[in-house]
């Protein structure tokens, strides 16, 4: 079956995200990132600086490297189950987002920073307070708000008041983690993404086997060749660790929360997921990375959930040189917006768009659609670098939770999900978790 030919909208997306990538490589720089080391985060970097870091760290998300963090992730799932078990024993209405936020933070702490939190134990690990500072829970919120409406004024005030988004003690804490990681970065039994980034400039045998050649040019034919010997410096490694925290925490939390809500409110779909799981895993205590890849119905459920509730509502690009797409002249410095959530709910692309229907993602249905109609992770060379990690985290959590619990609506469940108007995060999602015997 042939994929349908592109409409002018899809052709525009393809041009901006891939074909004319050299004109649309960069995002608008947020004022909050204009301080060291936040300005070195992949999300904030531009042009050749971005290309160097992106090229260097891309291989840490290869399959064999993801497998190196499989054990840590399984342990995070075990802690999530313990927390849900404890809560379900005393309460009917469980705050799903709070548990998914703990799980997502545990995953980042252990797979990226090598720290074990155990949120459910009640003792607050030092990492949690510093992570909250990074995520901006307590940090200079008013100034961030001002930046959205009056960026120049906010920038001047930030300089005058000497406001830092990242408190000094938090910066020192994370720098300390990196210095410690450098000492043991070569230990194959003790790997996390920080250590893999420290060594990211070195190829290993498995990279060769997986066909990773870091010297190749990307599909955009625009990424420059990066010398293999160029290691990231401490600030660059730290900045990427923080970028993973910023980009990976609420996205995974929100996606898991919405997927569990959809499964609770569609019992037939939930049972199909559990049936697939039983067939593929039997009674195996541990689910391997390869098995996760074979759960095609679960994959469709996640894809449909990401369509209905895209954690990233829109992405932006700043045009760096005059460019013409479809006869439309886009002057240099123009900001273009790719409205991910609106594309996902367009009735011309998705019949009955508000209905949850995982069958839309069967291989036959996928083949009928242009790939640019579904892009929760963006598209092209600047798309989400953590997509494989995100899907692994989500599948692992869902497999563990659904094999132990039947999830259903409870008295406190609100229909439909209410989302924060600015961030899109689901609010007050309460569900019941009944142990499966
Ligand atoms: C369901 C979970 C996730 C979703 C839906 C998601 C979505 C996105 C989107 C839409 C972008 C922007 C793409 C663009 O501008 O075209 C992005 C960028 C990014 N994401 Fe994710 N993300 C998720 C999880 C993660 C995780 C777990 C990580 C951790 C490694 C991560 C790291 C990043 C980074 C570093 C970027 C910036 C890439 C660059 O500028 O080169 N994301 N993500």
TrEMBL record:
InterPro entries assigned: Cyt_P450 (IPR001128), Cyt_P450_CS (IPR017972), Cyt_P450_E_grp-I (IPR002401), Cyt_P450_sf (IPR036396), Cytochrome_P450_3A (IPR050705)
GO molecular function: heme binding; iron ion binding; oxidoreductase activity, acting on paired donors, with incorporation or reduction of molecular oxygen; steroid hydroxylase activity
Superkingdom classification of source: Eukaryota
Transmembrane segments: none
Keywords per UniProt: Heme, Iron, Metal-binding, Monooxygenase, Oxidoreductase
Entries under Pfam families matching the protein: p450 (PF00067)
SUPFAM superfamilies tied to this protein: Cytochrome P450 (SSF48264)
Co-factor(s): heme
PROSITE patterns: CYTOCHROME_P450
Binding site for heme: 384
Family indicated by similarity: Belongs to the cytochrome P450 family.
UniProt xrefs under PANTHER family: CYTOCHROME P450 FAMILY 3, FATTY-ACID PEROXYGENASE
Known role: Cytochromes P450 are a group of heme-thiolate monooxygenases. They oxidize a variety of structurally unrelated compounds, including steroids, fatty acids, and xenobiotics.
Entry protein name: Cytochrome P450
